Amino acid sequence: MSYLGRRGTLAPLTSADIPAGIVEGTDVAFLENASGTQNLGGTYSTERMYLNDSYTLTGNVTVTGHLALGSIADEDVVITQDGTERTITGSGTLESGRLVNDFQSSLTGMTGELGSGITNNAGVASGTIGSSVTGQNRPYFFCSEYSANTSIASTEVELTVWTEGTNGDPDSKFSTSTGRFTPGVAGIYLLGTRIFFEGAASSFARCIIRVNNGSNSDVYAEKQGTGQTIQLTRMEYLSETGYASVLAKSHTNSNALRGNSCHFWGIKIA
Deepest of 19, 79, 113, 269, by most Cβ within 10 A of its Cβ? Predict the structure, then answer.
């Protein structure tokens, strides 16, 4: 068999092969209407779908193809007459229904995963996103001060008595009695602390952020002198049952903590 021009299987038809005006809107099987009300009348012999808030019979309707009427409103599709008795006949198929059958205007109680393509809450009228949605930076915590006057010697001391800041632990994952943050959600966390040591000029203090009971290497910082502030951050993977806490020690002489100048915080970042 010979071919005149291009063989179809090797050179499929493209839009460049169709002259302007040959294919009209009425030739397309799917039609999305922008108007609030769609008028119905005449013969529907092809595949046709409308999405409208309401439908009105402005003439007799004959369906020999497939006519689908849809709505995204929180109500069933209703077809009304224009004041004159009309008929719907034909051998085809007429069906209707809501595009969203279980309409929900609030996000309360909904869970799921936000994809990378979602950049804001455009189109959401109201609602809150719960902690179970995986796209959020939760859980997190913030301790505004250390609540005990603790003397720090050469033995490491785990700081256990913290005061949480306002809304500093919305998911209740930090224990103010043990000083440990146990996230309950596996992920990568950014942890930070600021500890103020009061001591003699010759004192040498160390601050430590420890995770998973020391199974990971400690991250620490040291300073020497009177009234030393040590600030420390750490990024670390925590399992659901892993935890993070702050420890302190003094290599030479004794130190005491100034509680209202001490902070501890953490947040899930990935």
Answer: 79
The pTM (predicted TM-score) of the whole model is 0.50
Task: Name the residue range of residue 176's domain.
Answer: 140-268
Domain count, the chain: 2
Which sign does the torsion angle of CA 34, 39, 40, 45 carry?
A: negative
Contact (Cβ atoms closer than 8 angstroms) between residue 268 and residue 238:
no
Q: Per residue in 80-105, pLDDT tens?
A: 888 888 888 888 888 887 765 555 55
139 upstream amide cis, omega within 30 of 0: yes
Would you say residue 127 lies in a domain? no
- Going across the sheet that includes 66-71, the strands are 47-51, 66-71, 93-98
Residues 248 and 208 sit within 8 Å (Cβ to Cβ): yes
Backbone angles phi, psi at 259, to 5 degrees: -60, -40
Final residue before a domain boundary, out of 48, 74, 98: 98
Q: What is the pLDDT of residues 19-73, one digit of tens each?
A: 776 766 555 555 556 567 888 889 988 888 888 878 888 999 999 888 888 877 6
R_g of the chain computed on alpha carbons: 34
Same domain, 150 and 248: yes
In a domain, 6, yes or no: no
Q: What value, to the nearest 5°, has the Cα angle with vertex 27 and ends 23 and 29? A: 130
